[in-house]
């Protein structure tokens, strides 16, 4: 990633998650910059605007070179705040992934409107880059799995507690287990409390992802590419035995594809 060419028109893409917000600038050559900030429902639109503007300045990006913005959000209370922040910066209405937006997805679940914007964006990018059948894993506050079959249909998936949520619940609900940082232990079988917790949370999540992928492939009746994204993916996926691709830019790619589809 680096500074875009002078005069290149970019879009500002923002994915709002429960814990972190992914911010990226994208032009026709790809992603020019990408950063994460913490989601905070107490911050004002002006505070968010200042933070985002500072990030752009760090990358040498001029707001005048950003022609438009797009957001997807899993956090409704923060959505309007971020939208106002971007509109203050760009002086125009911001496009949002939601009902009525063209995505190209064929969603075959009980209620297609229930598919979260982040899952929509991830599936759009995954299909475009990795093909089908496809399994998309997003490891954030919640760990979500989205399944796309051979017919390019989103047929459903799974939702489970994210790694950090599980770890915090463990410390909160037990008297003698401390709060720890999530670091890979030196060995699988821990020899002290912290090592045991680290091994349990990391290898436990890795084994869970392996098992879920195996079961999904069995139900599909064929092999399927697996792509993982989200803040915890970098720590968990390398410990998995099944082959999985880590794509930290998946949601930004999806936002760009959806933007282009709706602004041709």
Put the structure in a nutshell:
The chain has helices at residues 45-58, 76-90, 117-130, 163-173, 193-220, 233-236, 250-262; strands at 10-16, 20-27, 30-38, 66-73, 95-96, 106-107, 134-139, 142-148, 153-161, 225-229, 245-246. It is of the alpha/beta class and 264 residues long.
Give structural notes.
- The structure is a single chain.
- The model is unreliable at 1-7 (pLDDT under 50).
- The chain has helices spanning 45-58, 76-90, 117-130, 163-173, 193-220, 233-236, 250-262; strands spanning 10-16, 20-27, 30-38, 66-73, 95-96, 106-107, 134-139, 142-148, 153-161, 225-229, 245-246.
- It is an alpha/beta fold and 264 residues long.
- A six-stranded mixed β-sheet has the order 6-9-8-7-10-11. A five-stranded mixed β-sheet has the order 3-2-1-4-5, sandwiched between helices.
- It starts with 9 loop residues before the first strand and ends with a helix.
- Strand 2 (20-27) and strand 3 (30-38) form a beta hairpin.
Q: What is the count of helical runs?
A: 7
Strand segment tally? 11
Determine the oligomeric state from the structure.
single chain
Beta-strand percentage range: 15-25%
> Termini distance?
25 Å
Spatial order of the strands in the main sheet? 6-9-8-7-10-11
User: How many domains is the backbone divided into?
Assistant: 2
- Fraction of residues in helix: 25-40%
* Global geometry: globular
The major beta sheet can be summarized as: 6 strands, mixed
Mean of residue pLDDT values? 93
Structural class of the secondary structure composition? alpha/beta
What is the CATH topology classification name of the largest domain?
A: Nucleotidyltransferase, domain 5
pLDDT < 50 stretches: 1-7
The arrangement of helices and strands along the chain is EEEHEHEEHEEEHHEHEH
**CATH H-level superfamily title of the largest domain:** ATPase, nucleotide binding domain
CATH-defined architecture of the largest domain = 2-Layer Sandwich
Name of the level-1 CATH class of the largest domain? Alpha Beta
Query: What would you report as the Rg, rounded to the nearest angstrom?
Result: 19 Å
